[in-house]
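Sanity check

After download, print the first record. It should look like this:
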Amino acid sequence: MDLVLSASRDATVRLWKLLSENPPKYDCSIISHGSAFINSIAYLPSTKDFPDGLVISGGKDTVIEVRQPGKPPEEDAEGLLLGHSHNVCALDVSPAGDFIVSGSWDGSARLWGFGKWECRALLEGHEGSVWTVLAYDPKTIITGVNSTVPGAGLGISRLADCMLHRVCGHANKDLRFEREILTGHTGQQGARPGFMSRPG
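Expected structure tokens:
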């Protein structure tokens, strides 16, 4: 692996470049500096519009920042995604690279489009903080919730075709998605980042 990305409570996102393999030695550069803890990070691999890919980060200041990995932190980001009202603690990019999904302590997950950087859908109704998110496929979002409410731990949202073209702010009935809850745990429930992944 030639590049590694990390986010930290020191409010930075760092890019680590492999200098030598044996022994492994990395050079570190700060690519983003926020105003509070940064505790979630995702990466969009190279695309036609973004040949170097994009680094997506979020944290305690509720702002999701999208930037090219080669840009210094003092330059403007490609996008600043605003909408969560509490700590952004989970991020993922859809397998096709056409949207970002975020999870927050505000009890919601959001889908964001690339380019216009607008919220395309709001997934509400979670019974606690959304600690982890997974864009499983183009129409399925899985959310893991930290909750002591029985049956609130893991939600699966199946999106209707029209949903990804709507704007945040509509009531859930207008967004047309189905949500089912997976139950079975008897203690405090939750899924932590990194515990969910797509098959393959």
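If your output differs, re-run the checksum step. Summary of this record's structure: Residues 161-196 have pLDDT under 50 and may be disordered.
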